[in-house]
Amino acid sequence: MTPIEVGGISVGAIVLLIYLGVYIPIALTAVSFVSIWLMRDNFTLAMNLLKITIGESAMEYPFATIPLFSFMGLVVSKAGLGTDIYAVMSSGFRRVKGGIGMATVGANAGFAAVTGSSIASASVFSKVAVPEMLKYDYNPRFAVGVVAGSSVLGMIIPPSAMLIIYSFVAEQSVGEMFIAGVIPGLLLTVAYIGAIWLMGYFTPGFVGGRPADDYEPMPMAEVLRRTLPMLLLIATVIGGIYLGWMTPVEAGAAGAALGLIIAAVRRTMSWRSLWDTLIETGHITASILFLITAASIYSRMLGLAGLPRELEAILAASDLSFVMIMLFYVLLMLFLGTILDTSSIILIVVPLFLPLIEPMGLSLVWFGIITVIGAEIGLLTPPLGISCFVIKATLDDPRITLKDVFLGALPFAGVMLVVLSLLIAFPSLSLVLL
């Protein structure tokens, strides 16, 4: 077989293995190693490339952002900031049709800005927001759909784990990726709130609910008490990076330290809880580093196979326009999103398309935002929509089926697709802050 044929079969084999449940880094590493061995008929070369990849990947300084932001997110979650921001938002939207749903979106956006995890958001707000919406007679399908839809904000609003993974795969600045994610994240938040208002106006039966008349207006002092810690964290992390006062690693360290101080002041973390948080941070860090190391050997395999150049030649021969190329790319991500998780899509697809995007003069930072949002739609679509599974498992309510979660999330997946189209049509929306 030619290297191109080996490379093509390897990509298919990786997708199949991940779909069958093989751990993503294992699938990437094993298939890439065997493919290099077959292409060069040299076991020693494949082994040496694997050694070099492991050494180079794990020793880069920017990788320090991973444990720092992971620790910050876990500490903030334990400090109860998600519940606080939800209470403030619910008070503000209490008399609006679908107001508690809007409050959930706003709270998720704020929570995402200090955790960077869709799974954490889905878990927290399943316990907080869904029971509250059911209390005020909201349609259960709408209630779980709002939580599922808004949970994906954690993957686009910085500090996002997916933006960090993309930055390493595409060799882009983590700080620039974080800054570029701010406007798209806010745009998606506003689009969700607007969509809820439209659903409440045109399809009131789907939304359901009644005014939360027993919600008392929250005094400004209470609003400040509940929101100031989160605002300080956001200003420290994002503000520090944007103003150039701190590198992403330094911002992660400052945010982690501040989160720990907040948890200590609130007395929400015992020594045992701190130890558990450190252990969980280690697990997350090891998992992400393993992913990135596997992605590195996979990229080297693709380069040896010449698959990116072959794809570029095929698309060039087809004389496709920019619109058609992006349409093909988005459709590919939507398809893969039905069977793979976000990190798998980024690790498999991005190395294939980077050699095609760079010669077109397109910003790789913008391309990263497009990639993450496109892949994130897969969190809401069956059969693998991870956020939907997390919500169902967290609720453990027999009245709400997995089908209800998926159908409730469907309108929000549509909103994401509209926002994604806007970001493709107007790249400046992602790059205006850079």
Automatic annotation (TrEMBL):
It is found in: Cell inner membrane. The chain crosses the membrane at residues 12-40, 61-89, 109-130, 142-166, 178-202, 223-245, 251-269, 281-301, 313-332, 339-357, 363-393, 405-426. It is a multi-pass membrane protein. One of its GO terms (molecular function) is transmembrane transporter activity. Keywords: Cell inner membrane, Cell membrane, Membrane, Transmembrane, Transmembrane helix, Transport. Residues 12-428 form the TRAP C4-dicarboxylate transport system permease DctM subunit domain. GO terms for cellular component: plasma membrane. It holds the Pfam family DctM. InterPro entries: DctM, TRAP_DctM. It comes from the Bacteria. Belongs to the TRAP transporter large permease family. The complex comprises the extracytoplasmic solute receptor protein and the two transmembrane proteins. Part of the tripartite ATP-independent periplasmic (TRAP) transport system. This is TRAP transporter large permease protein. It comes from Tritonibacter horizontis.
